[in-house]
């Protein structure tokens, strides 16, 4: 659907779930992909699956909350493929917790990965894109919890709302260099992690207007559009992909 030949993409947090499917679809559409995950075994397995399907993909394991590693990740893309065209800050962590007892170390962990990791990947990729002089696309991964209240997710929702503001703010900084930046806000999505809850699909099918939670490909297709040439005049925007849930917002509890 999208011609991404000769494009080089970095995706963090991509050993499984939404991140993996984004990598798979990027490679299927012709991009060379740097696939990051903090778990080296998971990263290697994911990259091998894409390679076996005919894609170009390199696994780079490491902590996407570590600024030094992020800089190394961008440098690796340039060393291997000569440039960076697309950066997708998918790595994130969800730590549920009652607001009244939420602990400082939990908040710091969520902030470090969800916010700082995304911020500094954006910075490192944008510096390289500016140097290259051919523009580029950056995508941040928000959540419907950045739009609607969700029990026990005050810290997580706060970081996701902040990412959408980051995308909007950086229009001023990045547009002169033809770099677009947008965000996707997925709703309930079937992944290896969420379906550990046996009632997840049933619950979200009942309260989602479209009758089911998203699957990873629903989110990946939205991501592909926003980083493709088809969306070259779209920047500073947040796209909600939730089957209509945030329009009505019934609680899963």
Commentary on this structure:
- With 253 residues, this protein is an alpha/beta fold.
- It has one domain: 3-Layer(aba) Sandwich (Rossmann fold).
- 45% of the residues lie in helices and 17% in strands.
- It has eight helices and nine strands.
- The strands form two sheets. Strands 3-2-1-4-5-6-9 form a seven-stranded parallel β-sheet, with helices on both faces. It has a two-stranded parallel ribbon with strand order 7-8.
- Strand 1, helix 1 and strand 2 form a beta-alpha-beta unit.
- Helix 1 packs across helix 7, helix 3 runs parallel beside helix 4 and helix 4 runs parallel beside helix 5.
- The longest helix has 29 residues.
- The N and C termini lie far apart (38 Å).
Structure summarized in a few sentences:
The chain has 253 residues and is of the alpha/beta class. The chain contains 8 helices and 9 strands. It has a single domain, classed as NAD(P)-binding Rossmann-like Domain (Rossmann fold).
When the domains are counted, the total is 1
CATH topology: Rossmann fold
Based on secondary structure, the structural category is alpha/beta
CATH superfamily: NAD(P)-binding Rossmann-like Domain
Distance between the termini: 38 Å
Helical stretch tally: 8
- Indicate the low-confidence ranges by residue numbers: none
Computed CA radius of gyration, to the nearest angstrom: 17 Å
